[in-house]
Amino acid sequence: MLKIIIDDKYCKGCMICFNACPKDVFKPSDSRSKLGALMPEAKNHEKCIDCKICERLCPEMCISVNKDE
Amino acid sequence: MHELAEKYLRKEALPLLFCPGCGNGQVLNATVRAIDELKVRDDLAAVSGIGCSSWIPVYLDIDVLHTLHGRALAYAQGLKLSRPDKKVIVFTGDGDCGGIGGNHLIHAARRNIDITVVMINNYIYGMTGGQKAPTTPYRSKTKTSPYGNDENPFDVSKVVMAAGGTYVARWTTNQPVQIQKSIQKAITHKGFSFLEIMTQCPVQTGKYIFKNQDPWETMQWYKDRSATKAEDIEKGSDQFLLGEFVEDVEEEFCERIARERDGLC
Description:
The complex is a heterodimer of chains A (69) and B (265). Chain A has 69 residues and is an alpha+beta fold.
């Protein structure tokens, strides 16, 4: 199982990860980051295929996809 | 926060000043990965001019020189000639590199000095409020061309190829892996290497040229208008070619100086 963490300290809510994900792992949410933006939320962890395109396309480098030990 | 960001960014300077969805952050992301892969952190010196894209190296925890508008390449050449052991990488924008510093670009390429130039092309002067840049497409309306741009845009990659750059590549922000590999290749390449990255500026280019301020829509616009094969490009359309255009081996300027003027460089 993979764990996707979005850092709420730096996320600006551009939603590139939500649009880029090939498996629709991310969903828009009502929670706000420390910068005041509406953040996406990693809802479907089990669908993730570890392609890490969200990590690479994140302009703030605030997403990390890790193996959950 | 990603572990590489933790390792290579200056935490006291964060958050990044870029707008939400800006392509400069994606270039920074690819650069951090390239530095980590090559393990060149201590050998690298970054130089930049003025503009949004010139803020990319400010966040990197390496040696950084933030200089005058358009003169980043002049400073970088001086740095390279006085410290040939350093790998110099220049981050610059389309207006900074092709417009105001255009002459420096041509002459740095002519000398084939070992510098890596990463030019971030967003079609507009973003930081100062959306003025017309040398790369703005024909007929686009901007703040300083309210009736449409009457001039033809500048293909900076072609200029560098003609001037004698020995590594030239162009990618859009849709290809983060290719950007990383090209930065790695450009850093290790001996000679003038030039990398043009087409990025989205959701605020200024989005407002004036694309009429859509969503960063993902702009990335898709670039994806639809780019191709990696020359035969896929329609003549007279606004499509552009991606890929690595030139990869040559020629004598490098610092080596030539060392050979000709013994011990000077």
